[in-house]
Design a protein that fits this description.
Length: 303
């Protein structure tokens, strides 16, 4: 049943682009902020405890509904729930749509729109140098594909809608914690501790999917350069688990593309070629995952 829900959910995710704004789930920010305010009163507690409690609070409703619908009406209500939860767990934006918008902005020469879309993909400040920005976008596509797509699919296959939603909840908490820490420049350190704890929790859940995705990039792209990049880590010992995951995905994914820079190629063509190639690598890997999950389902290894 999970395979059916996954296939339907991915098709809906491709077609219902006009509903992507609903996946931002802004109304959950109030609950998360309330949890952060409560955590400030528990300053003596390890910051990871309130972060986990907030995540559990947000996951409990889905757990309750999933448990109650599991065997009712031949599982049809559960199938609808699984598709709905999967749709809201993916994203919030489709990485392919963002790449297409980014490429259109480059081709039209709209610098403001290009920087805006680059920032949406990178999810951090955009480099001023155009070639550096192009490389950052290529890396970010490989990273964001795991965060928005493959990690959600992994947890959905492993634990059903509950797993997919739990992963998305940790991502929502992480994003809100990063925003709160950046906003409160004169904080007492609580926001920074909550941010670090939220990033740590999300990094733990992304650890296995990140490595499966990196292996997939090597399989779907140029294997030898990708394998060489895997064996040549660039991480520092001080990097967090989340940073380690992102560095791994970025260097293996970009190496799997094996693009290189052509001195005779203008920056517009280079930017479009790189982003498009990264997007195609993600799509090929998605097809590979679909085949593997289907085979596992046929042999009874998943539900």
């Amino acid at each position: 049943m999970h395979l059916i829900a996954l296939l339907i959910g991915l098709v809906i995710e491709r077609l219902a682009t006009q509903l992507f704004h609903l996946r931002r789930l802004r109304w959950l920010d109030r609950i998360i902020d309330a949890g952060f305010r409560l955590a400030e009163r528990l300053a003596n507690w390890p910051a990871l405890i309130p972060v986990i409690l907030i995540a559990v609070l947000l996951v409990l409703p889905v757990f309750a509904v999933t448990f109650s619908l599991r065997d009712s009406l031949l599982g049809f209500p559960y199938l609808l729930l699984a598709i709905t939860v999967l749709f809201f767990s993916l994203g919030p934006q489709d990485i392919g749509e963002d790449v297409d918008e980014y490429c259109r902005a480059i081709e039209e020469g709209d610098e403001d729109r290009t920087r805006q879309m680059a920032k949406a993909i990178i999810e951090s400040e955009v480099p001023e140098d155009v070639l550096e920005r192009i490389h950052k976008v290529e890396e970010a596509v490989c990273v964001q594909a795991n965060n928005r797509l493959f990690a959600v699919i992994f947890w959905f296959v492993l634990l059903g809608p509950l797993g997919a939603w739990a992963y998305r909840v940790t991502d929502l908490i992480r994003r809100r914690a990063v925003f709160a820490a950046a906003r409160e420049q004169e904080s007492s350190g609580i926001s920074e501790r909550l941010r670090d704890a939220a990033v740590m929790l999300h990094g733990w859940l992304a650890w296995v999917p990140a490595r499966l995705t990196a292996i997939g990039y090597a399989t779907a792209g140029n294997f030898d350069p990708a394998l060489g990049a895997w064996r040549a880590p660039t991480e520092q010992k001080t990097d967090s688990q989340s940073e380690y995951n992102e560095h791994l995905l970025a260097r293996v994914g970009v190496s799997a593309l094996a693009l290189g820079d052509d001195a005779d190629e203008d920056l517009v063509s280079r930017g479009v070629r790189g982003a498009t190639a990264a997007n195609r690598l993600v799509f090929r890997l998605l097809l590979i995952w679909a085949v593997v999950i289907a085979a596992m389902t046929l042999y009874g290894w998943t539900q």
